[in-house]
Design goal:
Layout: E1 3-8, H1 15-27, E2 30-35, H2 38-41
């Protein structure tokens, strides 16, 4: 079983995110999506 992992901030879900998820799903059997908080990415 192949598992793929992606992490990002998906608060404003858009077509680019959907394409990412669809492409990642085609690469393996399971996709794990982690969501970062806004505080984590603020610089």
């Amino acid at each position: 079983m192949k598992r793929f992992f992606t992490v990002g901030v998906y608060d404003l879900l858009h077509i680019g995110h959907i394409k990412l998820f669809k492409n990642a799903c085609e690469l393996g059997d399971e996709l794990i999506v982690a969501i970062q908080s806004d505080e984590c990415i603020k610089i």
